[in-house]
Amino acid sequence: MKRHTKKYYGSFLLLLLVLLLAGCGGGSDEEADTTESDVTSQSEEQTNETDENESDVEEASETATTEADDDSNDTSSEETGNQDEESNSEDKEDNDKSLEDYSSEEIEYARVWLELGPNQEIDELNVRRIAAGEPINPNDETSANYTEDVIQLAGSRLVDGSVTYSGNGDGTINVYNVPLRWDSSDAEVDEDFMKEYTERLIKETELVKIDPGNDEEIIKLIDIMKIH
Question: Rounded to two decimals, what is the model's pTM?
Answer without folding.
Answer: 0.59
